[in-house]
Write a structure and sequence with these properties.
By secondary structure, the chain is of the alpha+beta class. Helices cover 37% and strands 21% of the residues. Helix 24 links the parallel strand 25 and strand 26. Helix 1 runs antiparallel to helix 2, helix 12 crosses helix 13 and helix 16 packs across helix 17. It binds 2-(butylsulfanyl)adenosine (IVH).
Length: 701
């Protein structure tokens, strides 16, 4: 490995070393992940990555398409292997009331023709709000773990499951069946969830909406090292394939699982009395907010397995089990204030500022009040004690005011007539069709309103738009405040300005060499973007992902679209008629587009952006080129084009360019000096082309 100081490297040397590092790091990644036998220590590996980042920082224009900096934990997303479940993973029917529960029991008794005097024992255990997984043990060793998927086919997440402390590699004790699949729920505790969201925020990544999403997102990481950093837990509650069954009841099964070292939920009960089971339900509901993890009900199961077998299934749920769901969690707290938030399109949304309260284990201090009419309808006053509610994915809501608790000191909220951020007048749109005023008040300040500008930038970098790793809401706010990023184009000139700056990002608080380099590399990666994403990213009102795609399908380039939209300002123009003729594209969206591009400020911002990025027309992506839809990997030295040129060209022909070879690779383009990737491709029988052959293949497209 080169030992020269990065400062002393010539451009040619830097380029050569970056190529070497990309190849070598990728080879070590592969060794680590697929062979489980790392050849170098973590410290050596990290040193290589750091050197790569340092060189990239000095020679930004040499950053390669396959740079290790672009890979999360050194791995390119390739997806998981599919696993067909030997026995389908089922779902459960629901009960919402005590009556539903007695109906469930009656149904079972009838089905089994039981006499009133016959005992029917049921088990009751919390229903964990996580995601189910199946753990396959052969001769006591954990051999494969899978997600539920669609119930028939899941994904192989063995490595990720192995990072969970509750899941043993080998079963304890002895006498286990040769094959046993233990099934249960993977979940994240509230404390781990809160810590993870804090880290996400610090890294400029989006928040997880709830612990279930966080658990799912963490388990489905391609790099199991990331899963390992996120403490997940597991409770067993069922089984799949089993070569011989050493138990005859649900309770016995749980005892045996426990003796093997896999825990079922400790709050499991077995009883023949409906009253006891419903008491248990209420008890668990009381305990719910203090458990430390989300549950959304109690599952009842027939204890005897012979009865379970007789009962069987209806569609995809067992007749012998049911989930008794809890109502959404509520709490009361004080409404301390109402703040107005200004959105990307200027909408003024009232947000309830609450005295922090725990609702289902998650601390809530904000809740939405939707709009002015909603505040009036609910009659809430500032200072009121209010009931708030949190259900699954939705943002906490204010349900009602507790009028009995009023002291007389509460004050009505005066909805502002002007934008609280920029002071522009706030108006209600008039719906042209109905002639009625919209419920939403909007700031008329457009981009002169800093709140709107920041929100637009946040939208611009968001997941479905430019999706720039390391550039989230927090970073955008800080960059805007510092005057570093005021419009989208500024994002793409950030690295160049930073290089010339006396106060470079790497020296700023919360940043460092690595995070700054990674950010610049992530931005660079997005200089090429699909037309529909580009359009969606602009954050034009009424232009969501679907409309953006529709537009992209109908125009060859942003320039062509802008021209049409500019002419369409005149409603009698042919351009307007052409736009309206596009199936699925209505008046509202057209007007919004016209208005957007009519605004000089927007014209300038888009022109500046187009000067920085390359937009790939959808047409080009959909082209029936010989490589459309194929996954291509470039390796070795390319003589006639640069790596990034090759990547852009391949992508514009509808191919997907990946940095590593897998079973999903369709074509490997190998130049001189190709090493491990070529070897792997040959082993996998992947089509391998020289650069010449590749150019021939795509010639003329
Ligand atoms: S029993 C054949 N028990 O709920 C019966 N499921 O809505 C298999 N779940 O897919 C399920 N806690 O992911 C069972 N204690 C529990 C559960 C539980 C959570 C999940 C499971 C299932 C879903 C059905």
């Amino acid at each position: 490995m080169a030992t020269k100081d990065v400062e002393a490297l010539s451009e040619a040397e830097a380029s050569e070393e970056l190529a070497f590092l990309a190849e070598t790091i990728a080879a070590h990644d592969e060794q680590y992940h697929t062979k489980d036998t790392p050849l170098i220590s973590d410290a050596e590996y990290d040193a290589m990555r750091q050197r790569n980042s340092a060189i990239e920082r000095r020679f930004a224009k040499l950053i390669r398409g396959d740079s290790p900096s672009f890979k999360v934990g050194g791995r390119v997303a390739e997806g998981f292997q599919k696993v067909t479940h030997a026995r389908a993973m089922l779902s459960l029917g629901n009960a919402f009331s005590d009556e539903d529960v007695s109906d469930f029991v009656d149904r079972i008794r009838r089905f089994l023709s039981m006499e009133e005097s016959d005992e029917l024992v049921l088990t009751a255990e919390p229903k964990i709000d996580g995601l189910s997984a199946s753990l396959r043990y052969e001769k006591g060793r954990f051999v494969q773990g899978a997600t539920r998927g669609d119930g028939e086919v899941g994904e192989d997440v063995t490595r990720n499951l192995l990072t969970i402390d509750d899941i043993p590699r080998t079963l304890k004790g002895e006498g286990w069946p040769d094959v046993v699949e233990v099934r249960g729920e993977v979940f994240m505790e509230h404390a781990a969830f809160a810590a993870l969201n804090e880290r996400q925020e610090a890294a400029g990544k989006p928040h997880f909406a709830n612990p279930r999403n966080a658990a799912a997102g963490s388990l489905r990481q391609l790099d199991a090292r990331i899963t390992a950093e996120r403490p997940l837990r597991f409770f067993a509650y069922a089984w799949g394939e089993i070569s011989e069954r050493p138990f005859t009841t649900q309770v016995e099964a749980f005892k045996i699982f426990e003796s093997w070292g896999i825990k079922p939920n400790p709050r499991t009960l077995a009883t023949a009395s409906i009253k006891t089971i419903l008491d248990h339900y209420r008890e668990i509901e009381e305990l719910r907010s203090g458990l430390g993890y989300d549950i959304d009900g109690v599952v009842y199961k027939v204890d005897r397995l012979d009865l379970q077998e007789r009962l069987g299934f209806v569609s995809r749920a067992p007749r012998w089990a049911i989930a008794h769901k809890f109502p959404p969690e509520q709490a009361t707290t004080v409404l301390e204030d109402i703040e107005i938030q200004v959105g990307r399109t200027g909408a003024l949304t009232p947000v309830a500022k609450l005295k922090p309260v725990t609702v289902g284990g998650v601390v809530v201090s904000n809740a939405t009040l939707h709009n002015e009419d909603e505040i009036k309808r609910k009659g809430v006053l500032i200072g009121d004690t209010v009931v708030i509610q949190r259900a699954g994915d939705v943002i906490p809501q204010v349900v009602e005011a507790v009028e009995a608790k009023r002291t007389g000191r509460e004050k009505p909220f005066e909805f502002p007539t002007h934008c609280p951020v920029c002071g522009s007048e706030a108006n209600r749109d008039v719906n042209e069709k109905t002639g009625k005023h919209d419920v939403v008040l909007r700031c008329s300040g457009g981009l002169t309103c800093s709140a709107q500008a920041v929100e637009r930038l946040k939208h611009f970098v968001s997941r479905d738009a430019y999706d720039i790793e390391g550039l989230g809401s927090k970073q955008i706010e800080a960059f805007y405040e510092d005057g570093l990023v005021k419009s989208p184009a500024d994002i793409f000139t950030l690295a160049t300005r930073d290089a010339a700056s006396v106060a470079p990002l790497a020296k700023k608080e919360g940043w460092g060499e690595t995070s700054a380099t990674n950010l610049f590399a992530a931005i660079e990666e997005r200089r090429t973007i699909d037309f529909d994403r580009f359009l969606f990213a602009l954050g034009i009102r009424h232009i969501g992902q679907t409309t953006a795609r529709l537009m992209a399908r109908n125009f060859d380039s942003p320039e062509a679209l802008i021209e049409a939209v500019t002419v369409a300002n005149d409603k009698d123009s042919q351009a307007y008629a052409d736009l309206i003729a596009i199936d699925g594209f209505g008046d509202t969206a057209i007007e919004s587009l016209v208005q957007f591009f009519h605004e000089p400020h927007n014209q300038e911002a888009v022109a500046a952006l187009l000067g920085e990025v390359k937009v790939i027309p959808l047409e080009a992506q959909d082209l029936s080129s010989p490589v459309a839809g194929k996954t291509v990997v470039f390796t070795g030295k390319l003589e006639q084009m640069s790596r990034s040129e090759a990547k852009v060209r391949a992508e514009s022909l509808g191919a997907k360019v990946s940095g590593s070879v897998s079973a999903k690779t369709d074509i490997l383009v190998a130049g001189p000096g190709a090493g491990s990737k070529l070897k792997k491709a040959t082993e996998l029988g992947v089509e391998t082309l020289t650069e010449e052959e590749w150019l021939k293949l795509v010639e003329g497209y």
